[in-house]
Sequence to fold (297 residues):
Amino acid sequence: MVVPGCHDASVRPVAAILLAAAAASFYAFSTMLQALEARKAPLESALRARLLIRLFQKRTWLLGSAVGAVGWGLQAVALSFASITLVQPALGLGLIVLLLFSTRLLGETVGRREALGALTVIAGVALLGWAAPSRIDHFTFDGRVGIAVAGALLVAAPRGLRLLRLGGGLPTSVVSGLGWAWVGLGTALVDRALAHGHLLEAALWAAGAGLVSWTSLVIGMSALQAWPASRSFPVTFALEMAAPAALAPILTSGGTGPGDGVPFAFALALACVGAVILGSSSAVSPLAPVRSVPEPL
Fold:
C-alpha cells in the first residue's frame, strides 16, 4: 500500500503522524460507541463469541465498528510513509480526541490533569517524529515467525482466559491491548507485502489481522463489562501504542534511530506516561460500575 508522492524524507514523518492522528480520531469515536453497547451485554457472554454476535445486532455498535474500519485503513496508509515505531505511538493522540468527545457528549470538564496528559502525549509523539528509526520496516524472517506464533496464541486467548479464570478487568485489558498491538504489526506486514507485490502473503497477514481483531474485540468488550472504561482504556491504549514500537527494532532491520535508540526510548516512555495520565482521567470516558464477571463453567 505504497502511496505515490511525498518522497521527501522530511515530509514522510509529518504525513505519517497526521494520518495516524486521523486514524486515532476514528478509533476514539469507535471506542466510545462500542463501549456504550458493551456495558449493556449480559455478563454471562464475557469472553465468548456470543458477546460479539449480540453486539452485531446493535446499530450503535455496528456504527462504531464501521468507524474503526476507516481508522484501520488510515493507519495502513500511515505505515506506507513511516516506520511502525512512529505510527503506532502516534495513535496515542486518540486519547486526546476521546477526551474532546467525552467533554462534548458527557459534559465533563477538562482540568490540569487532562491538560498535562494531553501535552505529554503531544510532546512524546513530536519527539518520536525525530527519534524514531527512519527506515520503513523490513521484518526479519525470525520476526515474522514470532509474530505469526503470537497471533495464533492471541486467537486462542479468550478460551485460555476462561480456563484460567482470568476474566477480570486487568487480564482482559492487558490481553486486548496486546491483541491490538499485534494488529498494528500485522497491518505493517500487509503493507510491506503489498509494497513488494507479494499478494498471497498480504492476504494471509490480512486474514490474521482479521482473526486477531475479532478476538481482541471479544476480549476488549469483556474488559468493559468487568472494569470501568477509565481503568481499561489506559491499559489497552498504552500497550497498543508501546508494544509494536518497542519490539520493532528486534523484529525488523530498521535500526534504533539516533543516539543508539536512547531518545527513541525516552520519547516512547513519555508518550505512554501521557496516555496513562490522560486515559485514567474520569473526563476521558464515563465510569461504568465495576461488575464481577461470573466464573467460567
About this structure: Residues 11-279 form one domain. The two ends are 45 Å apart (CA to CA). Confidence is low (pLDDT under 50) at residues 285-297.
